[in-house]
Amino acid sequence: MNEQSPLTRPTPVLPDAQTVTAVQHYTDRLFSFRLTRPRSLRFRSGEFVMIGLMGDNGKPLLRAYSIASPSWDEELEFYSIKVQDGPLTSKLQNIKVGDEVIVRPKPVGTLVLDALLPAKRMYFIATGTGIAPFASLMRDPDLYERYEEVIMCHTCREVDELTYGRDLINGLADDPLIGEFVGDKLKYYPTSTREQSPKMGRITTLLSNGIVAADLGLPPLNPETDRLMVCGSMGLNNDIKEICEAAGMEEGSNSSPSHYVVEKAFVG
Ligand code: A2P
């Protein structure tokens, strides 16, 4: 008998399946998780991949997710919104260690260091889950080799929504692998818009009216010295583009590096 009976046949494995190694919930709308990394997946910090679960119809249900872990990490990390009636995140929010998640190993994206011309200072501007690509870049030694100063601006509605980024940033200086690269180069600028906190308001407003510059002792945006990477809602991306263009900056890309790059925060 060569043919296996249905009872002894091994459980089918999902195509491109990776195993969940950790899950952390921050609020009833936000969580992060870590997966094993496909051997074939090489990526540049800041890029995104398609990930997901098998749908009820037997077809993969995939969405674009920025990889939040740096390119040197053995595992992959993702930061996600939970949408109660969302086709993917309503299920993804229930994953446990040992479960499988599909990862298509084809990374792409514009938020890569190579899309910007050399300069002194880097601004990362994120709203909500848009901090994910910067969670990757902030852990990449290459960032600190290229820039003297990095400013991570993160705006959320409520203070709890800042926790993922705050915990990550607070741990960086003492990180045995990249702490010495980070040194005192990274400045964190968190703001909230709908709950009281030490710094309130949209980052767009705070940049335009000079408050960020005044708080951090920085000169106005200048295409000679400053670069920006932006990841958030369409509204944020468009408003920051206007601010950049008004400062004489041009949008960059992989094939034509320039002063700033923008990507939509995908899920949520
Ligand atoms: P606000 O509370 O004033 O709308 P969301 O949860 O809707 O994605 O928003 C995440 C954060 O991004 C919120 O703090 C929100 O502020 C802020 N935000 C939304 N649109 C913009 C925009 N066009 N420019 C700057 N910040 C924005």
Can you tell me about this structure?
- This protein has 8 helices and 11 strands.
- Strand 1 and strand 2 (30-36) form a beta hairpin.
- Helices cover 21% and strands 31% of the residues.
- It has helices spanning 89-92, 132-137, 141-146, 163-172, 179-182, 203-208, 211-216, 234-246, and strands spanning 17-27, 30-36, 48-54, 60-66, 75-81, 100-108, 121-127, 149-156, 186-192, 226-232, 260-264.
- The chain folds into 2 domains: 16-108, Translation factors (Elongation Factor Tu (Ef-tu), domain 3), CATH 2.40.30.10; 113-262, Nucleotide-binding domain of ferredoxin-NADP reductase (FNR) module (Rossmann fold, 3-Layer(aba) Sandwich), CATH 3.40.50.
- The strands form 2 sheets. It has a 6-stranded antiparallel β-sheet with strand order 4-3-6-1-2-5. It has a 5-stranded parallel β-sheet with strand order 9-8-7-10-11, with helices on both faces.
- By secondary structure, the protein is α/β, with parallel strands linked by helices.
Write a brief caption for the model:
This protein has 268 residues and is α/β, with parallel strands linked by helices. 21% of the residues lie in helices and 31% in strands.
* Major β-sheet annotation: 6 strands, antiparallel
Percent range for helical residues? 10-25%
Distance between the termini: 52 Å
Strand order of the largest sheet: 4-3-6-1-2-5
Could you tell me the strand content as a percent range? Answer: 25-35%
- Class from secondary-structure proportions: alpha/beta
